[in-house]
Amino acid sequence: MLLFYHDRFSIHEAVVGPWGGSGGRPWDDNSHTGINTIYLSHGDCIGSFQVIYRNPYSQPIIGVKHQCGADGFKDETIDLGVGEVIVKVSGYFGSARQHTVVRSLTFTTNRRTYGPYGKQEGEHFDFPIQRGVIVGFFGATGDVLDSIGFNLSC
C-alpha cells in the first residue's frame, strides 16, 4: 500500500493503495468533490467499476466505466444519499482467472454497509477512513478489476 500526502493550494490530499494485482491497464478518475453513485459488477471477483462523482456545485461528473470483458457478473448500484459519505473500504484480493485481482469489495458509510460484493477469498484489506473523505478512485482493469485505490481529501 502506498500512502502519499501533499498540500496543493491549501487542499490536503492523500493517495491510498492500491490493493490487488499488478496486471491490467492503469486508470485514475482523479479527485472530485464527492461521490454520488458507485456502479460495479461482481461474481467470483469484481468485474467492472464506475463512479458518478459530484463537483463543487453538486452536479454529477460521470467517471469512465472500467469495463469488464467477462460474462456472468451481477450488476449493483450504490446510491449515496445527501450527507452520506464512505467511512471504510474493505475487501479481498487474490488469485482468480489466472491473475491476482480484486475478489471482493465492501463500502461502509456513515449510515450503512454496502456489500460484500464478490467472493471473500484471498488476502483481506481494510481501510477505515479516520480523517477526510474519498474524492476519487484509481486502479487497473483487464478483463476484471485488477487493483483499486483511492484519493482522500483531508
Automatic annotation (TrEMBL):
Keywords: Lectin. PROSITE patterns: JACALIN_LECTIN. It holds the Pfam family Jacalin. Residues 13-154 form the Jacalin-type lectin domain. One of its GO terms (molecular function) is carbohydrate binding. Signal peptide: none annotated. InterPro entries: Jacalin-like_lectin_dom (IPR001229), Jacalin-like_lectin_dom_plant (IPR033734), Jacalin-like_lectin_dom_sf (IPR036404). The keyword Signal does not apply. It comes from the Eukaryota. Belongs to the jacalin lectin family. This is Jacalin-type lectin domain-containing protein. It comes from Ficus carica.
